[in-house]
Amino acid sequence: MNSKILLSHSTGNPNVRGVLEGLHRNGMLHSFHTSVACFPDSLFDKISFFPLFKDLKKRNFSSDIRSKTISYPYMELGRMLSRKFNISKWLEHEKGKFCIEQVCHSFDLNVANYVCKHHKNISAVYTYEDNAFNTFKQAKEFGIKCIYDLPIAYWEYGTQLMIEESIRLPRWAATLGGGINDSDAKHERKIKELELSDIVVCASSFVKDSLPLWAKNKPIIEVPFGTPSEICVSAKPISTEEPLRVLFVGSMGQRKGLGDLFKAITMLDTKNVELVVLGSLLAPIEFYKKQLPNFTYEQVRPHCQVLELMRTCDVFCLPSIVEGRALVMQEAMSQGLPIIITPNTGGEDLVIEGETGFLVPIRSPEKIAEKINWFLENRNQLYGMSIKAQQHAEKYTWEQYGNSIADLIQENF
């Protein structure tokens, strides 16, 4: 079947780009729909050199897909500028004029309208959670297949875990994020999106296992994300003279298990471990310093500088409660860091126990402390583990990711 697939996503994350390139490379792309797309010599490309618009550089796409790209920029530009000028009223969860929910809803309606006008040449629509409801509904009217990419655990299971966290660690409840406060209307949209889907795509067994029973009879494509090969560097010799630097990267909340990591560090009670935390604050910095006074806080920075920081650390730890598949794990491994992660990160396959890192249960500061202490007592093994972590991460490529999804879609059709 010579499939022509409409791909849509409001922001164009790295995993979306992997699918985009895979469909295009395999001659399966009908069109790509996003909010803001920046191409060489375009207006957005030219103004991205001004500090106010530097975030547009994150929306760069290859000129190869320019003729197949349709963009709907206004709502997303409003959101980007609202964040830049800190207009919190316009970003308020589900209510703000330019909140992410409004951006996705407007985007979804625009794509649905396109499907209505161009349905004769479209075999399938491929879109993502919160971007899909109207697009799928319109596609169904014309007998077009609906492919649903779920980038994080299904909302029902994820919400259940976060509610449990708010009870287990009430001091950290405010850091759990907006998902725990989603409205019934937003939940209903998510349910209908999954109901309308013909194929479900996910990047980890954790996401696949989070699906409700009624959806598990649908065809499910499971393909892990790729690791950017160009960022891999040679592993560095490990110093045993300095404290062991343990790195956490991500939004600073209990959804990513930061409270458990803080507790683990206090249990170690040693000056030979330095915890380095890079991420966006979800509470005032004073809150975090009260929980663990001596951690090193690093502010959010450009991606290349995140990689530089990774290369100054020894071990990466992400004890998440709810994820999809955290890309940062493979990025850390590509920079030579063995990992300590939970199965809920979606990266269980990244761990070759004792060689590329360790898997620990969720909600277990004791196990996190045990593994950090193992690295502390076995510093002589870090160099070898660093090399193995890099080698294992390099096995996952974005080209492989995109091609696998394209092939599996064809098989399911």
From TrEMBL:
Enzyme class: transferase
Domain Glycosyl transferase family: 239-389
Keywords linked to the UniProt accession: Glycosyltransferase, Transferase
GO molecular function, one term: D-inositol-3-phosphate glycosyltransferase activity
EC number, UniProt record: 2.4.1.250
PANTHER family (UniProt xref): GLYCOSYLTRANSFERASE
The name this protein goes by in its record: D-inositol 3-phosphate glycosyltransferase
Source organism (scientific name): termite gut metagenome
